[in-house]
Specification:
Number of strands: 2
Distance between the termini: 65 Å
Strand order of the largest sheet: 1-2
Helix content: 55-70%
Radius of gyration: 23 Å
Order of helices and strands: HHHHHHHHHHHHHHHHHEEHHH
Largest sheet: 2 strands, antiparallel
Oligomer: single chain
Structural class: mainly alpha
Shape: globular
Strand content: under 5%
Number of helices: 20
Length: 337
Amino acid sequence: MSPLDQLLQARTERERNAALKGWTKVHGPVFEFMVTINQPGVVALLVPADRFAELLEAYQRSRHHYLKQLSEQLPQLSFDNDEFEYHLLVYSLAEHLEGDLEPIRPIMEKMLLEKDTEIMGVATKLFERMGVNCWASWPVIRKAFACQGMWESPFHLGNAVAATVREKPDRLEAIRTALQAGKEKEQQALCHVLVELGPLANPLTDDVIRITLTPSASPDTISCAIMALGYLGEKNAEISAILRHAIGSEHWFVRANAIASAGQLRLEPEMFVPLIIQRLQDDFGYDGWSASNAAVKALGQYGPDARIAREPLIVLQNSTDDEDMQKAISEALTPIR
């Protein structure tokens, strides 16, 4: 019996783990498999399209069983490496699956609305692989956006929606409707779609501005809208005022995205370059992203218009032990000089 057949027929955790070990013997460890799978035709040979639906359903059963165990807080349950291996295997297959995904769309939609982020993550990757053909699932995608926003969900789903709009720009009106009517999490996710679309989404600039000015909007939502403004390409007095105010926000991620958008747009150098320089020491953040990181990149984007930033950048470069920051400063100084 092939490793795939074993995975499909596994009904218990023990049988599934045995099937994973069988897969490893034939195809190598999952992490190695994720590299070799890039070879053309590998996925098609290992998992025919008509059997991938079976694998997805078997994977969901396994995840549901695992999550049930977690919810019952069984004392003997620890972090399950085999469960994670199974997820990586299915995800890597989804990432490279070839052929027509239309037959498995119903399964993909069901997975997309799961509360488990791992199951949903596999679905978002499949929708990204589907590309422009994912538009038929727009109502379901909106529900997923409204549940997960853009922070708890991989960006692949936003990439897929952006691809459909590039194919047919008139779909931008559907994005506008969702942006105006949607709840905050949906607005956050849609802002990522606008980032992917860039100037093509410029007609929605006023809608994004309205989000930044909504008194009840959360800092997360305002931050997403401010990030989108940097990619839409519009420059006017209202946007300048919004970003200038946001650079002084009490929330570090709002400050960082405002600086990034100002640099992206190269807004009013006389006004913004001094404000951005003041944030070079503003290094509170997460995962390599802070107002300081954003400031270095933004000053580089201003180029010669940021000449007064040369000395502060060199001071920061000489005082930091962060090699990534040192490299970023070097890259920023080149266009400034």
